[in-house]
Design brief:
Structural class: alpha+beta
Number of strands: 8
Largest sheet: 8 strands, mixed
Number of helices: 6
Oligomer: single chain
CATH superfamily of the domain at 15-143: Gcn5-related N-acetyltransferase (GNAT)
Low-confidence stretches: 4-10
Strand content: 25-35%
Order of helices and strands: HEEHHHEEEHEHEE
Mean pLDDT: 91
Distance between the termini: 53 Å
Length: 202
Amino acid sequence: MDNLESKPQIDEKPIINIVGEKVALGPIHRGVLPLLTKWENDFAVGFLAGDTLQPTPQEAMEKHNESLFKGEQGNHVFFIIYEYVTLRPIGLTELRRINHRHGTAAFGILIGEKDCWDKGYGTEATRLVLDYGFTIVGLHNIRLSTFAYNERAIRAYTRAGFRIIGRQREAYRWGNKLYDNVIMDCISTEFETPLKRILTLP
């Protein structure tokens, strides 16, 4: 018997935790490391995220994300965002600095594949993570910060349920221009979503 034929077939479909209409969310894994490195080195993507724009080798990305790959950050939940139809990885989203006593966390998201911009993927992924944070983790207040020049993100966050609660004025510099740091939050008692809830509580 051919040994190759006797080996079980490996399911190459990613593990999925949460399914929406346009996107699905699943756990981070080492297989997406080349994509994480690609997105980190795409200055157009990093500019919108407010990242430091510098060349970053894959080895550095692996070291930076090692604790996430091992699931060792207890106050940090990290999802890979998949385009639902194709199940290709298109970005990432997270809840970090989770504080169970106060019911708070910080939100972050990145759509790394530029052909997936302006399709509503970021808005839906944000709604799914808010639902997860409020329903599963038991949070009450989720906040974020972004920069005033990232108008696309501010619109998406607003559609998903965030509200602007303040600004740190002229706190971010690109070249000779200064931009406000825009602070937004969403609380569980105000959150509404047109999507099917990720878990129906009895």
